[in-house]
Amino acid sequence: MPEIIALVVGVLALLVAPVAGLYLWPLGRQYPRVPSARGRDFAEASRAAEAVMVADAADPRVRPESRSRLLSHGHRTGRAVLLLHGYTLAPDQYDELAQEFFERGYNVWIPRAPQHGTVDRRAHHRVEAAELTAYADEALHVAAGLGDEVGVVGISGGAVLAAWLAQVHGDVVRHLLLLSPFFGPNPRQAPAFAVRPLIVLYGRRLLPDRVTSRGYSLSAVTQYLTIARGLPAPARRTGLRSVAVAISPLDAVVDPTAALTVARRIADANAIPLRVCTLPEALGIGHNTLDLAALGPGSSELHRLYVALYEGESAPTPGPVPTTSARRSARPTALRDR
Fold it and tell me: What residue spans carry the region label Disordered (predicted)?
């Protein structure tokens, strides 16, 4: 998104007088406490998930590989996990990690986000913050009926929704794993001073949408930023038992400082350590920290590491990643409590 810098500067230069208004304009959409996600039993939750999957299958606009999916043991388990995919992607982003959780005894729910996974590759441009939070809220209501202990994993924009759920449904969410969380754009792409104007101008659709070189709609990504800016401040003390973040130094999309700062606030509010995993540059993984195909057999180790992060393990001992010679010695950085 390097073009965003020039774009915002140009817009501000044209608007001169209203510039102050852009910074003073309330971003609003502060999301209040909502009813508990508890209440459904396993049968009800399974029927709700099945209804979503049937609707996806019956909708010709939804790509078959992008449909919502449920990995169920056929009964309520001790643990269930909700997996929220990233912006522009779909539930299949979690195929391998979902299987890892399932094999450990979890029931796993991976719903498709609104306007995503369709044959219209530009449909996600139309997504709105309100429908994203409604989607996340309903998804957690399903997951809460699938297991006694429930947690959420989110990647990129899905991580914003995961953090939102952990704060507004604090009586339900016990574990939180944020992968490449998009709490702010990378400063090399959009400087800090440009973020609020972007949210106001594009998030409120005051300007015609623009699409970046990565295929990201500014109107859409600012919906996620609107939710991020609306997270409770200060962070709420809830029932969280673990909070973790996994990031890559090669990620050119997210602001790494914001990724850690927001997660740390949530962890500190709950008096628990924030566990951070920084992936080695040698792995060659960028923003999509679930795109591990190039690692071959080594991808299984990272999936296990992500589960360990989620569960709050303090010192997993991952082995070497057996891929190309340039990557053979690369190991995920040991978990650090921050």
Answer: 313-338
Counting DSSP H helices and E strands in the chain, the numbers are 10, 8
Query: How do the domains of the chain map onto residue ranges?
Result: 59-187+233-337
* pTM for this model (two decimals): 0.87
Report the sign of the C-alpha dihedral through residues 211, 216, 217, 223, in that order: negative
CA–centroid distance for 282 within its chain: 24
Give residue-wise pLDDT tens across range 21-74.
444 444 554 444 455 666 689 999 999 999 999 999 999 999 999 999 999 999
> CA-to-CA distance for 282 and 328, rounded, in angstroms?
9
What does the mean pLDDT of the chain come to? Answer: 87
Question: CATH homologous superfamily of domain 59-187+233-337?
Answer: Alpha/Beta hydrolase fold, catalytic domain (3.40.50.1820)
Tokens of 84: 């929220």
Cα 261 to the center of its chain, rounded Å: 15
User: For residue 270, which of 295, 235, 296, 303 has the smallest C-alpha distance?
Assistant: 235
First to last CA, the chain: 30
- The CA-atom distances, in angstroms, between 224 and each of 113, 132, 168, 287 are 12, 8, 16, 16
